[in-house]
Write a structure and sequence with these properties.
Layout (H helix, E strand, L loop, with lengths): L8 H8 L15 H9 L4 H5 L4 H15 L3 H10 L2
Length: 83
């Protein structure tokens, strides 16, 4: 799969982590852009994703770093500011 900022997170997640059944709980409508936008606006990432598992969030953040060129620390800090 050629992953871009417009890729649906659930599709990407289920393809890359097929044995993680919690991936089925991810909102099928959201893209990596939506995750980035929510972080940028201090929104609730767990509400957006539809799953509160921290491992899922971490994996999504790692991929978001690759797609945006931001460091994990930058993405994590943005998320932490929302709390």
């Amino acid at each position: 799969m050629n992953t871009t900022i417009e890729t649906k997170v659930k599709n990407w997640y289920n393809e890359n982590y097929p044995t993680d059944n919690l991936g089925e709980n991810i909102n099928p409508l959201i893209s990596f852009y939506d995750v980035f936008y929510t972080l940028d606006n201090y929104g609730d990432i767990y509400e957006l994703i539809g799953e509160s598992d921290s491992l899922i969030r971490e994996r999504i953040f790692e991929k978001l770093c690759e797609l945006t060129g931001h460091t994990y620390e930058e993405i994590y800090d943005q998320w932490a500011k929302a709390y």
